[in-house]
Amino acid sequence: MRIEVNVPNLPESVSDATLLDWHKKPGDAVRRDDNLIDLETDKVVLEVPVPENGVLQQVLRNKGDVVTSGQLLAVIETDAAAAEAPPPPVAAPEATPPLAATLPAASAPPAAPVLGTQQPLSPAVRRLVVEYGLDPAEIAGSGREGRLTKQDVLDYLARGASAEEQQPPATAPAPPPETAHRPAEVQRPTGTDRRVPMSRLRARIAERLLEAQRTTATLTTFNEVNLHRIYEVRNRLKTRFEERHGVKLGFMSFFVKATVEALQRFPIINAALEGEEIVYHDRYDIGIAVSTDRGLVVPVLRNADRLGFATIEKSINEFAKRAREGKLTIEELSDGTFTITNGGIFGSMLSTPILNPPQSAILGMHAVKERPVVEDGQIVIRPMVYLALSYDHRIIDGRDAVLCLYTIKELLEDPDRLLLGV
To answer: Within its chain, how far is the Cα of 7 from the centroid?
Structure first.
């Protein structure tokens, strides 16, 4: 039986997709639900699964082609007799050659198991392999069925860097006596430039950031927060919390809860400007910015005002995991009302976050550092963090923005009020 593989229905907000990669080539046997094609949209990478067991007979689109909903991508033959026969000579454009064929030759693989080229590579792994000119056959995979993971490649690179660092530096020969007085010539390293097309996600991020800068009157207000009380609560209850809920008690749940409480008190911060109208959102769908290899994505915690600490922690962990695997859905990335971004995980001390249109405000968290502060006339060391609230001054007055951020500060510094909702 001839089975057609088509582009799945794309959401209304996505007009087309780019064919990122094929995981099979004509003539390959395929199994139901295996990933056949990666399609990249402005927001996520969509996996197109194999609909039925059979043989991939035709590939009708090439890597890099732009496709729309319903377009034919491939043909699979499920008939047993046809499956044994080679693919027809009139097959459509040639499939992309296996990645290993495009890489430079490498030395013989080590005696350890080498599974890198026996399994398809994920987009993140493929980018690393191409960027560093690696041979997947030299890297042992730790993923399911021996697949290479991004961490496998990073560990391989780290081992290589360590080996280079352990090599003794070469001793330069002494200059001849007659030239010893001459200044040494500066050896300038030679290299080449690489041009890499922007991914659709990166291009969309660039477009939205420029849009935010161009179409909003952005202003940022700052404050600092003493997290001493939250540290006390967390240290006292984190073990019981993890035993009860099966997830570690982090700090993001405190920030989400404090933010929602502040948004409820200052609804304009949670609003959006559409034309000549201000849209007040009576829902609290909080976007949590997550950094991935492809760029920054913002999955949304729906109805965060109704979520407990454990649910928030579990959701954020799951978002981060699936974001790095490229498995978030477009629905999970759409229609947030407010965003929280945490540059502190990379060591940032202070920054001015850019709005995430059409939202009107965004909270930036930064690195927690122990600093001397004055409490009751005494200098003490406390874990301190700077917070930044960027807002669209067209609809949000400075008073509301400053008071909203100060409310977040008060709730974080007195978590009993946060836990009791007072």
So the answer is: 24
> What CATH number has the domain bearing residue 233?
3.30.559.10
Domain boundary among 61, 84, 107: 84
Lowest mean pLDDT among 10-19, 271-280, 306-315: 10-19
* 38-56 pLDDT, tens digit each: 887 766 777 888 888 888 8
Residue 109 banded pLDDT, cuts 50, 70, 90: very low
**Nearest-angstrom CA–CA distance, 161 and 217:** 46
Neighbours of 234 (CB within 10 A): 18
Residue 19 structural domain: 2-84
E strand intervals along 26-103: 29-30, 35-40, 45-49, 54-59, 66-67, 72-77
Angle at 217 between CA 216 and CA 221, to 5 degrees: 120
Distances (CA, A) of 318 to 75, 221, 301, 340, 349: 35, 31, 11, 16, 26
What is the spatial distance between Cα 338 and Cα 390, in angstroms, rounded to a whole number? 11
Residue 397 a catalytic site member: yes
Our answer to whether residue 393 is catalytic in this structure is: yes
Containing H/E element for 319?
Answer: helix 309-324
Among residues of the chain, what percentage have pLDDT more than 70?
80
Question: Whole-model pTM?
Answer: 0.62
- State how far the Cα of 121 lies from the Cα of 99, in Å rounded to an integer: 9
Do 283 and 361 have their domain in common?
yes
> Which three-class secondary structure state does DSSP give residue 175?
coil
Residues 6 or more apart whose Cβ sits within 8 Å of residue 408: 223, 225, 255, 258, 259, 262, 363, 387, 389
- Residue 232 CB neighbours (<10 A): 11
**Residue in 397, 400, 414, 416 annotated catalytic:** 397
Q: Which of 393, 400, 414, 416 is catalytic?
A: 393
